[in-house]
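User: Please predict the structure of the protein below. I'd like the answer in structure-token form so I can feed it into my own downstream comparison script.

Assistant: Understood. Taking the following sequence of 385 residues as input:
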Amino acid sequence: MDFNLPEELQMLKANLRRFVDTELIPIERDTMVDNEMKPDVLAALQEKAKGLGLWMFDVPEEFGGLGLGALARVVMWEELSRSIALPSRNSALFGPRVSPILYFLNDGQKEKYLYPVVKGEKRTCFAQTEPEAGGDPGGMRTTAVRDGDHYVINGHKRFITGAGQSDFIQVVAATDRAKGSRGGLTVFMVDAGTPGMKLLRQQELMVGDRPWEILFEDCRVPVANRVGEEGDGMKAAQGWLTEGRLRHGARGVGVIERCLELAAGYAKQRRTFGALLSERQTVQNMLVDMYQHLHQLRLMVYNAAWREDQGEDVRNESYMCKYFGDEMSFHAADRCMQIHGGMGLTTDLPIERFWRDQRSFIITEGPTEILKMALARQILREYGN
């Protein structure tokens, strides 16, 4: 049993650490306007990212990417998450974000949708959440009813990141509401501008994201745009969701580590009542808690990623990585803010951004309570006899 990263991943981690420290952190407060990266800044950083030899690191080799495994990907995500220079969602620093759902497409669909995304010619987003169905996809009310060689979609989606810039949207709809998420959901590729699909409004959030509400009224989508067979929706989306939850855990590792760097550094400089903060046991306890959570989370994330690379089903492990990572990284940002006092509230430092983003992640892409409910079912099956 070896808990060390392979040598090549240690080198990857070290190279990315240097890249983040020298290229991202120095400009992290000046990379975005209106929640989008400045085009000139993104272009310059992408050229530097290409120089690292990591362009499209998460795209399979058969589609022109590097096809790095899960363990390599989480190493990258954790290092990049030490800075707020990049959007917390949908960063294009190392190439277009390619949803794993697109790999399920048939050959004709890949030509129309997957390859243009890989080439950077098209952008896409994923639409599942609804006003009545967020973490509970089985309660989805958006329906897709077969009508000859089309499906007619009706419903309302909410909190859809990137919808306004997308050339097509991956829409999850109920084709059999009685079956819920167990065979009742199907994914469709819906082209932007399709009659009956309307972008209603962008919502202002406390974080760096302005997601869209989308309305579908008798929106006709060709059967040829269906992903797989009817009822394959959750199967197609599962890879996306599992990878996303591992990414949450890896991001938590990066955030906790940066918060430790900031908090420990400030505690060794700031004096109150004649002593450094680093000499106060209360502050020391905060730092120790953060350090312990960092160690726990990194082991969890690395183990889950390694097991995925071995071909194992890590759905349950991804649940734990997601909620533990989000909760503990928010706690780290909160304690880091407390140690900094009033300075922690300013936008001069990245702490307030970490605090807002990590608090939002506790809710999005699987709230803690729902993930724990799913894990409880597994625990009762495994240990309840």
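That's the full token string. The mean pLDDT is 93.
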